[in-house]
Amino acid sequence: MSPTLTVDDLMFEVLPSPNRKTVELTVERDGHLTIRAPAGTDDSVLTGFVQEKRFWLYQKIAMKNAMRQAVAAKEFVSGEGFPYLGRSYRLLLVDGQDVPLKLENGRFRMNKGDADKGRELFIAWYTLHTLPWIKNRVRLFAPRVGVEPARVEVRDLGFRWGSCGRAGTLNFNWATILLPPAIVEYVIIHELVHILEANHTPEFWQRVERAMPDYERRKAWLAENGAGYVVL
Length: 232
Known about the structure:
Blueprint (H helix, E strand, L loop, with lengths): L3 E4 L2 E8 L6 E4 L5 E6 L4 H10 L1 H17 L10 E4 L2 E8 L6 E4 L2 E5 L6 H28 L5 E5 L6 E3 L4 E5 L7 H14 L7 H10 L3 H11 L7
Parallel strand pairs: 2-4, 6-8, 9-11
Antiparallel strand pairs: 1-2, 3-4, 5-6, 7-8, 10-11
Helix pairs in contact: 3-4, 4-5, 4-6
């Protein structure tokens, strides 16, 4: 099994797993393509699988590209909107504020002198507010799934919303807090179930459905709209 696979004009990163039983294709938010497959799977098998899914792949790639193009670069000026839990809040640049950035009275407020560091300040603010919000929901939903995560952390996960470590640590992207609450809750349930099921097997999705019966609607919303919330 090669670390990468090229099929015509498509190049994939191959991620083998000794515990996986099925092959899965993923189009990441940046258009990066991955194949997750059982360890030792022959490249010819993976190539055949990609060829079967070719039409689906091109649809997904086109949709992701359109979403990325639709998201305009943010400017750290008064009047610019920034999302938080699915809602957009306008930025107001102010003088002499006690902290660089805060959300107050329905507006983000930032010191004018800190506008050149706007991206870093927003990421720090989002990260700070993501952790307690998600920890609260994890405590709520963990009993539904029947698990107890070892730890919950918030970090930059690139183009993933969340991940589950082998030791039961749940990691969430700071950008998750930009999404509507119902969608963040789906991400949380998804990662909680990964403590029990490492791969996206039928059993995995059955567990997700038991914990969140309408997960398919939330999952579809995230796939169709999530890229639009990647604003920084």
